[in-house]
Amino acid sequence: MVPTPLALALPMTTLRVSLPHAYPQLQPPCSDGMHLFDYTLTDIFFADLLCRVGGVILLDDIRHRGVAPVLDYMLTNYPHLRRVTDTICADTMATFVKVAPDSRSWDFHAPFSGGRGRAR
User: Fold this and answer.
1) CA–CA gap between residue 14 and residue 58 (Å, rounded)
2) Between the CA of residue 69 and those of 16, 28, 35, 48, 82, what are the distances in Å?
3) Measured over all CA atoms, what is the biggest interatomic distance in the chain, rounded to whole angstroms?
4) Do 32 and 67 meet the contact criterion of CB atoms below 8 Å apart?
5) In Å, what is the CA distance from 111 to each residue of 13, 19, 58, 69, 77?
6) CA-to-CA distance for 40 and 69, rounded, in angstroms?
7) SS3 letters for 13-77?
8) CA-CA-CA-CA dihedral for 14, 17, 21, 27, to nearest 10
9) Strands across the sheet with 81-84, in order?
10) What is the tens place of the pLDDT at every residue in 60-102?
11) Where residue 17 falls among pLDDT bands split at 50, 70, 90?
12) Of 12, 22, 83, 92, which sees the most CB atoms within 10 A?
């Protein structure tokens, strides 16, 4: 496990290299650190870049106010990720499988609920 939060460690890497091959120890990426929306979304953004098709991305603490909106954002704006709901921790952790490369157009955005009703 990387001791530095993904939000700080990953921007220091050079994105021009093939990250999934350069850092295979990061499979599966897991976001479990700062519970602020922007930190969590940054973790997920870089985790998606690192994750190979067929790989898994974990989002922990999905009931927290800063994390719940990220889950909603992923569900509505990341069509290349599929949520697996039959896991042992599905009420507190979201598990996603990357089923395809990210092929969204540069201007893609789908409105999302912002976590209303999920956060505590």
Assistant:
1) 23
2) 29, 21, 11, 17, 17
3) 40
4) no
5) 31, 29, 22, 11, 8
6) 10
7) CCCCCCHHHHCHHHCCCEECCCCCHHHHHHHHHHHHHHCCCCCEEEEECCCCCCCHHHHHHHHHH
8) 40
9) 30-31, 56-60, 93-98, 81-84
10) 899 999 999 999 999 999 999 999 999 888 999 999 999 999 9
11) very low
12) 83
Cα separation of 96 and 4, whole Å? 22
CA within 13 Å, CB half, 62: 22
Residues 108, 60 contacting (CB under 8 angstroms): no
Q: Would you state the structure tokens that stand for residue 116, as one six-digit string?
A: 């209303």
Cβ atoms within 10 Å, residue 68: 25
Annotated domain spans of the chain: 29-120
Handedness of CA 104, 97, 58, 2 (dihedral sign): negative
- Please state, in angstroms and rounded to a whole number, the distance separating the CA atoms of residues 80 and 52: 11
Q: What stretch of H or E contains 9? A: helix 6-9
Could you tell me the two tokens for 91?
């009420």
